[in-house]
Amino acid sequence: MIAPHRRREIIDALRRGTVPQRGLDAFAVGTDRFAAAFTDELAVVAAGGAGFKAIRGEYGSGKTFVARWLAERARTNGFATAEVQVSEGETPLHHLETVYRRLCERLTTAEAPPGGALRAVVDSWFFALHEDVLAVGGIDGADLEAVLAATEALAEQRLGAVADRAPALAAVLRGYRRALAQGDEARAEGFLAWLGGQPHVAAAIKRSAGIRGDLDHDGALAFLTGLLAILRGACYAGLVVILDEVETLQRVRSDARDRALNALRQLIDEVDQGRFTGMYLVITGTPAFFDGPQGAPRLAPLAQRLHTDFTTEARFDNPRAVQLRLAGFTVDGLCEVGRRVRDLYAAGADEPERVRARCDDDYVEVLARAVTGDLGGKVGIAPRVFLKKLVGDVLDRVDQFGEFDPRRDYRLTIVQGELTEVERNARAATSVEDIELDLGARE
Q1: Residue 52 — φ and ψ, nearest 5°?
Q2: Who contacts 101 (Cβ-Cβ below 8 Å, separation ≥6)?
Q3: pTM of the full predicted structure?
Q4: Dihedral sign (CA 192, 120, 168, 106)
Q5: Number of domains in the chain
Q6: Is residue 432 included in any domain, yes or no?
């Protein structure tokens, strides 16, 4: 049973044409074949290991959906998660300090929403340290300075080698803890911002902790290791990090692309060598990235680490392999998703019986085929537009207007402005002018 607020989140996201952040099990189709492998691999991570998975598929095949579905399952099993969308302007992969900053900005737990989890995690860690200090005995709990000193010493001990490699991490955590104890909220927020990789933290705040400058590439990796230690100390099972849309690397300058590919290779190697204990790294990309000349094959060591044999039939794909191949939707699959969304909507509708009657299974199929036909018959890119039309154009109207009958009163209309570039290019062209060409700069 889905809570009303969660149902609204899902419906609102579909109405906007986006993938919901939570509640994906309610209408997930085709994910069952991955569930056992993901469960086993997350168990290994929770037991002190690390893992990596690449999800490949064409546009519209459900890469982001599967990644978020996995993240949601992980959170229900005690993991923290972070979804980072790779982009040349906002989050270039070759600047790992920026990737780390985005990760902290989007850190999510079952208790805290995206963007609000970092402080909750750090506070939980310090609370656990505080309780451990008092449990040992020998310290008067009323002696604030003694408790703070003992907590700081235990914090450095728990951070272990990370504190030696990145002393600034321990320094900023000490500063944060003391600022809270002194009731200096502004200074505490400044330390937390620096811990999360934010630039432009006031110099006075950094001086008070004996730190300087901002995080760099190597510092970000050390801080990520420290964040994993903090999560474990705060009783989380680990961290699932999703790097979404790595195929965007193919569109950047060749020098930046090469550095980004090497950064990705470095991350995978660090996971494989056990440096990032408690982390499950997931990347998503198109087949062109994994197989094309401007993608992973451009860096041979990376291509070797990602290689997976897909010469067999898709039904025999190995879910335990380093890459998962998403086959994309069929019309039947699209209809199944539509029926689940219709039922989910009806469960919270003002007129549930009218919704189910006027948008019955036959109509769902009619609409799915109409949207697919308008997009050149390419089912794989239809789900976003189909669900947006189903919710916003049909279900909302059926629920609100007693006289509205979609079979009689609704005609599917899709305008260019509501489509992504890939969706526009997929539409059936009626003339040469309808074909969009990518005339962007080449190397």
Answers
A1: -145, 140
A2: 196, 197, 198, 215, 220
A3: 0.85
A4: negative
A5: 3
A6: no
